[in-house]
Amino acid sequence: MKPENVIEVENLSKQFGNFKAVDSISFELKKGEIFGFLGANGAGKTTAMKILIGISHPSSGKARVAGFDVYKETENIKKNIGYMSQKFALYDDLTVRENIMFFGGIYGLSRKIIKEKTKALEEELQLQDISNQLVGSLPLGWKQKLSFSVALLHQPKIVFLDEPTGGVDPITRRQFWEMIYKAADQGTTIFVTTHYMDEAEYCDRVSIMVNGRIEALDSPKKLKQQFQAESMNEVFLKLARG
Amino acid sequence: MKAFVGFIKKEFYHIFRDKRSLFILFGMPIAQILLFGFAITNEINNVDIAILDHSKDATTKEIINKIAASPYFSIQDFVESEKDVESVFQKGKVKAVLNFEKDFSKKLNGKYQATVQIITDATDPNTANTISNYVSAILGNYQQGLNIDFQIPYQIKPSSRMMYNPELKSVFMFVPGVMTIILMLVSAMMTSISITKEKELGTMEILLVSPLKPYEVIIGKVIPYIFLSLINATIIVVLSIFVFKMPVEGSLLLLALESILFILSALALGILISTVSTTQQTAMMISLMGLMLPVILLSGFIFPLSSMPMPLQIISNIIPAKWFIIIIKSIMLKGVGIAFIWKETLILLGMTLFFMVLSIRKYKIRLE
Amino acid sequence: MSITVRNISKSYKDVKALQNISFEVKKGELFGLIGPDGAGKTSLFRILTTLLIADEGEAEVSGFDVIKDYKSIRKNVGYMPGKFSLYQDLTIEENLNFFATIFGSSLEENDDLIKEIYIQIEPFKKRRAGQLSGGMKQKLALCCALIHKPKVLFLDEPTTGVDPVSRKEFWEMLKRLQQKGISILVSTPYMDEAALCDRIALIDSGRLLQTDRPQEIVKHYPKTLFNVRANSMFHLIKNLKDYPFQYSVFPFGEFVHYADKREDFEPDELIEYLIEKGLSDVLVEKAEATIEDVFMELAR
Fold this sequence. Notes:
The complex is a heterotrimer.
Chain A (H helix, E strand, L loop, with lengths): L4 E12 L2 E12 L3 E6 L5 H8 L7 E6 L2 E2 L4 H7 E5 L10 H11 L4 H14 L15 H12 L6 E5 L7 H16 L3 E5 L3 H4 L4 E6 L2 E6 L1 H7 L5 H10 L1
Parallel strand pairs in A: 3-8, 3-9, 6-7, 7-8
Antiparallel strand pairs in A: 1-2, 1-4, 4-5, 9-10
Helix pairs in contact in A: 3-4, 5-6
Chain B lengths: L1 H16 L1 H21 L7 E7 L4 H12 L3 E7 L2 H9 L5 E5 L3 H8 L4 E5 L4 H23 L22 H32 L1 H6 L5 H29 L9 H25 L3 H19 L11 H7 L3 H15 L3 H25 L6
Parallel strand pairs in B: 1-2, 1-3
Antiparallel strand pairs in B: 3-4
Helix pairs in contact in B: 1-9, 2-7, 2-9, 7-9, 7-10, 7-11, 7-13, 9-10, 10-13, 10-14, 13-14
Chain C lengths: L2 E10 L2 E11 L4 E5 L6 H8 L7 E6 L2 E2 L4 H7 E4 L11 H11 L8 H11 L12 H13 L5 E4 L8 H16 L3 E6 L10 E6 L2 E6 L1 H6 L5 E5 L3 H10 L3 E7 L2 E6 L6 H10 L6 E5 L3 H9 L1
Parallel strand pairs in C: 3-8, 3-9, 6-7, 7-8
Antiparallel strand pairs in C: 1-2, 1-4, 4-5, 9-10, 11-13, 11-14, 12-13
Helix pairs in contact in C: 3-5, 4-5
């Protein structure tokens, strides 16, 4: 593994019975890169992501995440990544502060550090007034921004974001992306799936999965040139429709 | 009408595709009735006891032999002193110790009076009580044999006969109870869950925004469960007749009709539960806590109502299960006809109508 | 008019879900309700489909009052709720037949309406709905909503969480249904879908921001927009936000949409400023406003 590579995937496959959910995919991610992982529903994105975050075993192929093997060192992988999904983010019945304490605790941060981080976070997101409110009572946009910050709490090398901005209003969506840019600028690698094609354009590089295979992988600009398309949406439609 | 038939068809699809629930639905009554019939029983059988015999004479030997010969007790241990009594109990080896006083024969023959102390392990009070009664009975029996040669003037001899369940089989008591529980559970819990499931999945929203009328939805939900409950009731009755040789003295038709009445009341309760709960989980909790517990505790199924404090006895009157148990016991064991249970039937009918009207009125035509 | 909404308001406890909403949907129109989650779209749909009662205001659907004539409305509208609401343990065919019978209709009767859509899922008709892919579920739900030839179709976020290919197909289906004379009210959080509607209403936090044809809405964007690009997105945004004359800075695909406070804004000045800040490959060019720009401007 080259030192600057945070994720290395080589011919990774996952088979369920006769069905190849992930079919020999390969790619490398560098430190601080924003990587868009696109594909139609059922193209194999979720399966691939589950392998990379260490909760599913691949059938064959090689993959290292944050320097650790996805077969043997899943515990170390989990310590070094952050994860946020649209379905599960934070506990609605805990307050903002309790959530931060809890997730900080899971990753073994000391009380002192958690306290400092909580304060910094509250300032950054301007949460001082609502830090004792239940997360369930916050607007969706706030929740998503907060859960992204919580996913970054233990300074992971990579953050996996599974459709983080679904249903969020356009302004908050952009604030969210500004947070992503900032994290990437500080050296965190961002691995993101989304159904918003304009968001795909925000990424440094994008892969598009069709039927378990990665059919295209490059910067949005080059992909548009390659497929003679105006937008990523067009690229996607051309590829996924075959 | 076509819409209604379509609705019922759909309900049956749900029921038959949910293999796990189906298994519970039909496995449960069988398991329960077998459990109550064989395992849980008020009779005692081969209870382990110990003997502390201070006299060791002919009379005590005779009595001990008599006890050992009975099917109810098996003598596990002979202890030598009062001190050892505590330790045999603590080891949990025996349920009772019989303590014969010193010079038993002598006292009996001289003063015509001797004492046997029955020491029982009352951590299980029911068993302790029963053991004590059985031992007393054996002793009484022995005493009678002694008195046969004497003629005591002015003697009142109680001669008891147990009617309707002469062998005092507890399974006869349990069958009506289990049937009540099963019918309650299947009807109330299953309907309330199947309605709240539609709420949870969002399909209720579409049903509401359709020309289906509220009563069509309710009756459509109810019919499959009447059917299933009746099958269950049949299984229970058949099992109790053929496995436990329980007599059904009264009319089977009357039994079936009364069961349908009770099923309807339980179904109405189930619908009522579904109108107040939004998730399957709450529906299940309410059914279990609000229906099952009262049925088990306050219907007279396990704990006799007559020995309960007054307030509980009063409360028990509003539990449909209480009336149903009276009804089916009367039909199955006493073999009476409607002439003797019309009052209970009427009460049950009134309750059923009340719950039905209430549940249809409470059924919401909108989401709030 | 197919749908008339007048001054509708609705609150839950202390949350104002809808505040004084009014709009109209013409017969045969494809009308889009565009706004993020929590904007009040679902509440409005439920009021119009007679599932909720508004606190204030009145509404009519194909001439029927949503409260008084709720039974007539329930016979005449098709509704596809936001959550997939079909029976997962029933097959495609059984779901369709069930909904057909409860509406007193049959699959054959309105062949012309659903045939095109049904053909796409027919090969899987014996498969249970729970095992279908997102796109197929959506098509089945649409078929079920259409089974009784409704005059008005309510689709609450039908494309949320669905990939762009299925979304495109779905909108093509809606266009064809519209041609058959059905009025359609559809909600979506995807701003790019607004352009596919005849008319749209932008909704945010329970308030209607604007109602018009999408082209008109875009035309009325008050500022001149510029696409700005440079080598580093993060530093570009940061520096633009620090620029004293900035009016709005929003990342937009590979560009940043920039508007300036001044009337006589000179792009060269900005380029100079950005280069001074250490950015390279700087490009500033005029840009067309999109629905999203308008939404953000109005929601500010």
